[in-house]
Amino acid sequence: MIFFLQEQIPLPNPPISSAPPVQVNAILTDINPIVNYLPILLLLIIAISFPVVALNISSFLRRTVFDQAKLSAYECGNDPVGDARERYSVRYYIIAMLFLIFDVETVFLFPWAIIYDQLAIFGLIEIFIFIGILIVGYYYAWRKGALEWV
Amino acid sequence: MQSLNLNYYYVLPHIILSITGIMSLLFGAFNKQAHRDLVFINSAGLITAGVSTYRLWNLVSSNAKDGPLTAFSGMVVLDHMSLAFIFIFLIVAFLSTLLSLNFLEDEDQSPEEFNSLLLFATVGMMLMASAGDMVMVFLGLEIASIATYVLAGYRKTDLRSNESALKYFILGSFSTAFLLYGMALVYGATGSTNLETISNAIKSGNNAITAQPMVMELLYVGAGMLLVGFGFKISTAPFHVWTPDVYQGAPTSVTAFMATGPKAAAFVAFLRIFVFTFAASYSFQLHTTWVNLLQVLAILTMIIGNIVALSQTDIKRVLAYSSIAHAGYALIGFLADDWISVAFYMLTYSIMNIGAFAVVSVMAGKGDEKTELENWAGMGFKSLGLSIALLVFMLSMAGMPLTGGFMGKFFIFKTAWDKGFHIIVIVAVLNSAISVYYYLRPMVMLFFRDENETNPTPLMSWTTYVTILLALAGTFYLGIMPGRLFSLLEVAKDVLVK
Amino acid sequence: MINLLNHILLILLQSEAASSGVKERLLEGLFNVNINNFLVLSSLLFVIGIAGVLTRRNVIVIFMSIELILNAVNINLVAFSRYWFLQSEGKNAYMGEIFTIFVIVVAAAEAVVGLGIIIAYYRNKETVAVDEIDLMKW
């Protein structure tokens, strides 16, 4: 195992700084940095429009008839409208803390994903070990009842 | 072709301890009341890690001519200094594991969290010892600190423990922020986070990237902030205010751990960055500047630690101020550029401090209720063995001959005197004389006062007994026969490159 | 799709840039931001953070100020990383960014532990004002 791991792993090639696109256009290469951000703009537009559309499209499709039963919260749910400065259960904070830590740990996955093809099987094993450790922590929290509501 | 040089063998002790920590966490999740089994799991992991560290020590000794071994693109450096300190951390973790069993059985909480956090903190400290890059210093520091914050607040329903954890957390993360800002500025000045590259850049006076002269202001400000950050961690004088509160409030077995382990770890990272990286060079005044600054800090630390300890009434606060004073003594070895005497001092300091806190944890009883010295009046003859053990540890801290504390101080003062730090050595010797007063005061309480209330004879479990015996043996061994250990370290000095 | 967007942007810029110099200003903004600007921003954040730690009463706010200092560090690291990237013509990349990733993750871990400690304290004492945390002193 150790011998296998002692293999010398080549470093990924140094990044090419702001590679120009293929179409050679004087202005396009000049404004290249902005063009690189266009997918993000696109993503932003889609991300904003998706919930907006999804929330509003139903108002065109549904029948607008209200009665008492329909306006009440579904089954045993909370009243959806109220004072925002109400006290939260301490459970919220514990869930929030667990979410925070497991959410931020994924920041390590991004660099790995970018050079995934160069690290190949070695990187895969490493990232599985990493996720395995996270799963142990998650399992421990679960087992100890940190995820129980009430 | 550059290579990452992934050599897992060089971090084998770290890996073993991490796996042991995860195992004991899972073991505790499946078994209720597994206190004793967890101690065995932890001890097995620590001993295995010790064996692999010993093998690495031999490897480093045989490869001495090629310089220190590095792995993971220079992130991990293995030399005698890192391995010597790793040994100290393993000893500290082992003694703390034994000591904490009694306390854990009294508490109604999950013991596996305590045990695995102890191991994770140890892994962090070991990473600090073997760090070859500022990123690793930071990571190791944070792994150790975050685990220790939780340990300090382990007694969840006790307000003192909560307060201790809160103070430790706020001031600890504040100091880490300082440290990080300093690291960022040093990176900006030198163009690298690798300590060896930084060291070369400082020797030549040019940055590592373009070989132009570097921006000195950035380097100076960065080094100053690093000094403040490490000053917090080892509790030197202007940054020491958190120490007594945190040590007093935390459960005594945790205090024993965090007064010794993280402090030694901060010392080794401090040594690595300041003594080895910001080393003396001809063209450049950085070394002289920090040496002068630290000289003042060391004198202040010793004086404040010893003087304030005189007026304390709580035994844990007395020991906390004494640990501040000890940081001052250890800084003298630091100034003399001599890591060996610092390592030896931290070893003796750790052993006698854990021993003293072990006695305190027994005398204070369940829940650490009786830490005020007043409560100890007349207990001496009732628990004679414990009192004599405490006397030995206290005398060792004061620097009595035949004990480890004397040898540690002797080596430090000797090297510093030879290097020409005369004033500071004289101040330190005078301070040691002052310290005898407050080290002997608990003895006066124990033996020469009438018992004002009927205290029950303190009970202790066999693990605490073993801890105290081991600490006693260590104190006497280091005091009477330090020659073998010291010659081992002296060999290491010859082969240490730079 | 991207090509189409490129095209749209091109047309927009061509029509505008000819007269008002928008393009020049854009490019200047992208390439010629002096490192000093980043450093000034970062040291401002640092000072605000320190002031917050020293003056505020609420532990949560103090903690937020510490996070602010950590973010100042992140800005510093990324700015220096970019600076050395440009200085070395692309050979020396990413050192500061890697450091930043670790700082972000460690800050999150610290936040989790810190909030846990604060909750534990609040359960026992019903306050998080620092001047009432005075059980142990001297």
What does this 3D model show about the protein?
The complex is a heterotrimer of chains A (150), B (498) and C (138). Chain A is built from eight helices and no strands. Chain A is mainly alpha-helical and 150 residues long. Chain A folds into two domains: 1-86, no CATH class; 88-150, Methane Monooxygenase Hydroxylase, Chain G, domain 1, CATH 1.20.58. In chain A, 1% of the residues are buried. In chain B, helix 5 packs antiparallel against helix 10, helix 6 crosses helix 9 (242-249) and helix 13 runs antiparallel to helix 15. The longest helix of chain B is centred in the middle third of the chain and has 32 residues, at 159-190. The mean pLDDT of chain B is 90. Chain C folds into two domains: 2-31, no CATH class; 35-132, Helix Hairpins (Orthogonal Bundle), CATH 1.10.287.3510. In chain C, 80% of the residues lie in helices and 0% in strands. Chain C has helices at 2-20, 22-31, 35-55, 59-87, 95-125. Chain C is elongated, with a radius of gyration of 22 Å. The model of chain C has no long low-confidence stretch (mean pLDDT 81). Chains in contact: A-B, A-C, B-C.
